[in-house]
Specification:
The protein is built from 15 helices and 17 strands. With 421 residues, it is an alpha/beta fold. The chain folds into 2 domains: 154 residues, Aspartate Aminotransferase, domain 1 (Alpha-Beta Complex); 256 residues, Type I PLP-dependent aspartate aminotransferase-like (Major domain) (Aspartate Aminotransferase, domain 2, 3-Layer(aba) Sandwich), CATH 3.40.640. The strands form 5 sheets. Strands 4-10-9-8-7-5-6 form a 7-stranded mixed β-sheet, sandwiched between helices. It has a 4-stranded antiparallel β-sheet with strand order 13-14-17-16, with helices on one face. Strand 11 and strand 12 form a beta hairpin. Helix 2 runs antiparallel to helix 10 and helix 6 packs parallel to helix 7. It is globular. The two termini are 27 Å apart. The N terminus is likely disordered. The structure holds pyridoxal-5'-phosphate (PLP). The site of pyridoxal-5'-phosphate has 12 residues, from helix 4.
Length: 421
């Protein structure tokens, strides 16, 4: 089985495992099996060290003082922005640093020049981060939120999508959707979404939080208008993310957070002069160690290769899906083909509480997964899902390229054992 899954031609990405300090740690004299990568990826030493370099060597602020230390911060931030822009196929000045993906989506939500009656279209399985900003605007009467129903296998329906655009003829101003789902790992047909949305004159935002580690995400190649990311899901530090767009789009956005660094000048008569992009959107002192570490994460991920990451995740998923396919009462969320679920195996064992299963995996085998609604409460609250086996949430095992088949084997055995209990 293992040899069939991992042919000699494949690059073994577990060679990178030594770079991740968590694997040195044991709990109760047993290794840790970290299968919570959809929540947060692990960070290689080089990223941790790069962020620390800031605190050790040039712990100043950029863009304010003109001394040597400030100049070094400025240079390091510039280098990171250049690296990140290249990685996402975007202009450097169209990379806006935010706290995370959530803040990046909020920036668009609050900055987009919506007019009354405008519609924002999402899917029915968005993370709260790409739902709440729209629900809030709707509550304030500024937009209408609409969603596209997924198919019976929880996949994206281009037909239903186009029907929605037709139905709201010309009113859909923004299509805001996840690239890859954190709920079941399904990736949307992003190229087709862009083509269809643009046909109806709607702009497109992709929430790429889950996609960036295992898919090529290049703004211009994709043709999208906005993409949003969090560094902590792509080997980078916490508390840093980005909104990536084009200068043309960014110049049309209103400012969201304002304050220091977002203006060139201000007056007590109420007038002020906005900074250029991207600084006009980056209010207050920035997360310099985060930005610098983010740049290093991108460099590291380039070395590994996102296509190889994708292959590895799918193989682990295939191994686990095959290994658990005959377990009675075990249901997997999403399409049955593991190749369509990226690095996510989201499941329930009918009759067992999802949080208890997750705790047992942790307590018995140091296997770390997540259980519950995964911040997609609205999907679980949909009437048709509310009466399904998934009504109380799922147990989500999500893989990283540094996870091994041996770990997947332990997981399969552990789930079988829990199912029998
Ligand atoms: C699909 C998706 N979108 C958005 C987010 C929000 O990311 P963050 O909390 O880093 O802003 C997540 C986090 O899990 C996610 O999975």
């Amino acid at each position: 089985m293992l040899t069939k899954l991992f042919s000699r031609k494949d690059v073994d990405l577990t060679i990178f495992r030594a770079d991740f300090p968590l694997f040195q740690r044991q709990i109760k004299n047993k290794p840790i099996i970290y299968f919570d990568n959809a929540c947060m990826s692990l960070r290689p030493k080089s990223v941790i060290e790069k962020s620390n370099e800031y605190y050790y060597n040039f712990p100043g602020c950029a863009g304010r003082s003109n001394h040597k230390i400030a100049e070094e911060v400025e240079e390091a931030v510039h280098e990171a922005r250049t690296e990140i822009a290249k990685f996402f196929g975007a202009e450097e000045k169209a990379v806006v640093f935010t706290k995370n993906c959530t803040e990046a989506i909020n920036l668009v939500a609050h900055g987009f020049p919506f007019k009354s009656g405008d519609v924002v279209l999402t899917t029915d399985k968005e993370h709260n981060s790409n739902l709440l900003p729209w629900l809030k605007l709707q509550k304030q009467g500024l937009i209408r939120h609409e969603y596209v129903d997924s198919t019976s296998t929880n996949e994206f329906s281009l037909e239903a999508f186009e029907n929605k655009l037709k139905e709201h003829n010309g009113k859909v101003k923004l299509v805001s959707m996840m690239f890859t789902s954190n709920l079941d790992g399904v990736t949307n047909p992003v190229k087709e979404i862009v083509t269809i949305a643009h046909k109806y004159k709607a702009k497109v935002l992709f929430d790429c939080a889950q996609a960036v580690i295992s898919h090529e995400v290049k703004l211009k190649k994709l043709g999208a208008d906005f993409i949003t990311v969090s560094a902590h899901k792509m080997l980078g530090p916490n508390g840093i993310g980005a909104l990536i767009s084009t200068s043309e789009n960014l110049k049309k956005l209103n400012q969201f957070l304002v304050g220091g660094e977002t203006v060139k000048d201000s007056n007590l008569d109420g007038s002020y002069v906005m900074e250029d992009i991207p600084e006009r959107f980056e209010a207050g002192l920035q997360n310099y160690p985060g930005i610098i570490g983010f740049g290093e994460a991108v460099r590291y991920l380039k070395r590994v290769g996102v296509e190889k990451v994708h292959k590895q995740l799918v193989k682990l998923n295939q191994y686990i899906t095959d290994g658990l396919k005959d377990v009675p009462n075990l249901y997997v969320l999403g399409p049955s083909e593991s190749s369509k679920r990226n690095g996510v195996f989201s499941f329930v064992i009918k009759g067992k509480n999802v949080h208890e299963v997750s705790l047992l995996l942790n307590n018995l085998h140091n296997i770390m997964v997540r259980s519950g609604a995964h911040c997609v409460h609205s999907w679980f609250n949909k009437p048709e899902n509310k009466c399904s086996v998934f009504k109380d949430g799922t147990i989500r095992a999500s893989f990283g390229f540094y996870n091994t088949v041996e770990e997947a084997e332990v997981f399969v055995k552990a789930v079988k054992e829990i199912a029998r209990l």
